[in-house]
């Protein structure tokens, strides 16, 4: 059995979600959203710029992402990058 390597960014995000009392389903949705963003970027999300975030929003809009999925992903990005920016 192989164990998935957890990046420092993901580990930090998992810890921050636990600290905030986020439930398991919400944690999984946030992680999925960040993975999707990383796939869009083609690199680690911690290297993203504000322009990358804007391009991702446009990409989701142009590809017919439902409003609820769009919102879940934006909330996840705000959670992740807000905590990084605040040094939490």
Describe, in plain words, how this protein is organized in 3D.
By secondary structure, the protein is an all-alpha fold. It has one domain (8-85): DNA polymerase, domain 1, CATH 1.10.150. It is 70% helix and 0% strand. The chain has four helices and no strands. The protein has helices at residues 8-19, 24-41, 50-62, 67-85. Helix 2 packs across helix 4. The radius of gyration is 13 Å and the shape is globular. Residues 84-88 have low confidence and may be disordered. This is Integrase. One of its GO terms (molecular function) is DNA binding. InterPro entries: CB, DNA_brk_join_enz, Integrase_recombinase_N, Integrase_SAM-like_N. Residues 4-85 form the Core-binding (CB) domain.
Which band does the percent of strand residues land in? under 5%
Task: Give the count of structural domains.
Answer: 1
What is the residue-mean pLDDT, rounded to a whole number? 86
Shape: globular
Instruction: Specify the biggest β-sheet.
Output: none
What is the H/E order?
A: HHHH
Uncertain regions spanning at least 5 consecutive residues: 84-88
Q: Mind telling me the C-alpha Rg? A: 13 Å
Structural class of the helices, strands and pairings? mainly alpha
Pfam family, one: Phage_int_SAM_4
GO molecular function: DNA binding
Domain Core-binding (CB): 4-85
Organism: Roseovarius gahaiensis
């Amino acid at each position: 059995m192989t164990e998935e390597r957890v990046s420092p960014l993901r580990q930090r995000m998992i810890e921050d979600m636990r600290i905030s009392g986020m439930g398991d389903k919400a944690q999984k949705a946030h992680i999925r959203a960040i993975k999707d963003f990383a796939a869009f970027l083609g690199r680690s999300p911690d290297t993203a710029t504000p322009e990358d975030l804007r391009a991702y929003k446009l990409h989701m809009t142009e590809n017919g992402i439902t409003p609820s999925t769009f919102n879940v992903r934006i909330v996840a990005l705000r959670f992740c990058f807000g905590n990084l920016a605040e040094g939490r």
